[in-house]
C-alpha cells in the first residue's frame, strides 16, 4: 500500500464535472478506475457513478471523487483537465515501470514499436 493519490483537477474540468453531475442526477460521484493495458502502462478511466462501500472517497469541493484499492496502491498522482471539449487524464504511478515499455512486458504488444501508444 502506497497511500492516497494526489488528485488535481483544472477549474474548467471541475466546472464541466459539476455540470454533468447536475444533468445526470442518477449519479452522485466521479469515479476513477484503473485499467490494465498493453505494455503495463498505467491508465485511468473516468466515469460518473454511484458511491459503493468498497470505494475510497475524496471530496474535491462539491464533488465526491471515488477510486479503488488498486488506484490507491498503484497511482501516485492524477491530473484531470478539460480541453477541446474532452476530459484528459494523466496519471503518475508509484512504480515507474508501469509508465513505459519494457522488453519483458511487451510480448504481443503491437504498440511497443511505437512507444507503447496503445
UniProtKB/TrEMBL annotation:
SUPFAM superfamilies to which the protein is assigned, alphabetical: HesB-like domain
Name of the protein in question: Uncharacterized protein
